[in-house]
Structures are given as structure tokens and as C-alpha cells.
Design goal:
Distance between the termini: 59 Å
Radius of gyration: 20 Å
Structural class: alpha/beta
Number of domains: 2
Order of helices and strands: HHHEEHEHEEEHH
Helix content: 25-40%
Low-confidence stretches: 112-129, 197-205
CATH superfamily of the largest domain: ABC-type transport auxiliary lipoprotein component
CATH class of the largest domain: Alpha Beta
Strand content: 15-25%
Shape: globular
Mean pLDDT: 76
């Protein structure tokens, strides 16, 4: 005989299951249930999640409503080649910048120029040199700089986001995310989904260049 709380729990579980079936969920992407329960990746929601986590975990804490102490945001770049970005990297930066403003932080976009980039195979020096150049210019009045990288294999992307103290280049908060690339995200890289008999699970990429640089 079912008790009243058990019946309530069963109905709640059924309602949740039905809502997932009707609406879909990107958490099921890159799984065997993707065709039945998968959904399009919402990059605005992803940017909000990254921004909220970075700002909540920042130490020392960030200060909102400080027009003279902005947060500088940079475009997310390819972890294997820090000179390379994409539509995905630019869109993610723009959505994170918007979310920072919604949270009452002053945010400014910082576009990396080709003249600041070093030669290939010098990624760590390039990133360090960019930050030193910023120290001499804008970053003296910035409370943090957002930097981010991504790397992907087949349909799985690994995203690393950091807030950096521009004065001493220490990491004040970080967030890592595993993203299944749907058709829209793949199209941002000029890619298409390919059938695979070995499945979608892949090994994680090598250690992030950002971690190598700041630890």
C-alpha cells in the first residue's frame, strides 16, 4: 500500500520526466538518449553559468557598481593555438560581458590585436606579454581580466575560464566546463556531425596553457 508521500514523489518524478521529454535537455547530448531527449545548446545560459560562478568564487571578491574599476573581457581562444579564435569564442565573450553588466559590474571588451601576438609555438609567452602590455595601459585601473580557452575533439569541447588579477597575474577564480557540440556549435567551426561507431566519449585534452602559465 502506497503512502501519501510516496504517491506525491511518484507524481513529481513523472512530471519531471515528462517535462524533459517535452522540452529536451542538453545534458543528454553526446549520450545514447540524445535523439530522444537531447536539445540545442543555449550559449546565453552557458555564459551566465560561467559568469555567475567566476564572480561568486572570486577571491578577493569583486566590487560591483565601480565605474573606475572595470572587468576587462577578452575573446576565448583555442588552447592549442592562442592566436586562433572563432565565432564561438567571440560570442561567448559577448554574452559573458552582457552578464557582467546585468550583475552591476562595469565591463569593457578588450580585443587582442595581431601586433601583440608572438610567433607560433610561443603561446605561454604571448599570453604573458599581453598581460604585461595591459599592465602599462588599461589594467592599472581594472580589477580583473577575463581570459578563456577551449579545445575540442570530435564533438566534445572543454572550456576553461579564468579571472586574472592584472597587477600580479594571479588567478582569482576559475571555472571549467565540458560541452557537447551540437550542430549549431559545430557550424561555428565549419564542422558537421559525423557518424561514429566508437561513440562520442573522448579523453580530456592536455593541461590548459593558462594553468601552465599561472601555476
Amino acid at each position: 500500500m502506497h503512502t501519501y508521500p510516496a504517491i506525491i514523489f511518484q507524481r513529481l518524478l513523472l512530471a519531471i520526466t515528462l517535462s524533459l521529454l517535452l522540452a529536451g535537455c542538453s545534458a543528454f547530448n553526446c549520450t545514447r538518449l540524445e535523439q530522444q531527449l537531447g536539445a540545442e545548446q543555449n550559449l546565453i545560459t552557458l555564459a551566465e553559468k560561467i559568469t555567475d560562478k567566476l564572480t561568486q568564487d572570486a577571491f578577493p571578491p569583486l566590487m560591483p557598481r565601480q565605474p573606475d574599476l572595470p572587468i576587462l573581457t577578452t575573446t576565448f581562444v583555442n588552447n592549442d593555438n592562442l592566436k586562433e579564435t572563432s565565432r564561438f569564442g567571440r560570442i561567448l565573450q559577448e554574452h559573458i560581458t552582457s552578464r557582467l553588466v546585468q550583475l552591476n559590474y562595469t565591463a569593457k571588451e578588450l580585443k587582442l590585436r595581431q601586433s601583440l601576438l608572438m610567433q607560433e609555438q610561443s603561446g605561454e609567452t604571448m599570453l604573458s606579454r599581453n598581460l604585461r602590455d595591459l599592465d602599462a595601459k588599461q589594467s592599472l585601473v581594472a580589477q580583473a581580466i577575463l581570459v578563456g580557452t577551449y579545445s575540442y575533439t570530435e564533438r566534445v569541447m572543454y572550456i576553461s575560464a579564468r579571472l586574472i588579477n592584472p597587477k600580479d597575474r594571479t588567478i582569482i577564480s576559475s571555472y571549467d566546463y565540458r560541452l557537447c557540440m551540437d550542430d549549431n556549435v559545430l557550424a561555428m567551426f565549419g564542422l558537421q556531425r559525423q557518424p561514429s561507431s566508437s561513440g562520442d566519449e573522448v579523453d580530456p585534452p592536455r593541461k590548459s596553457l593558462i594553468n601552465t602559465l599561472f601555476y
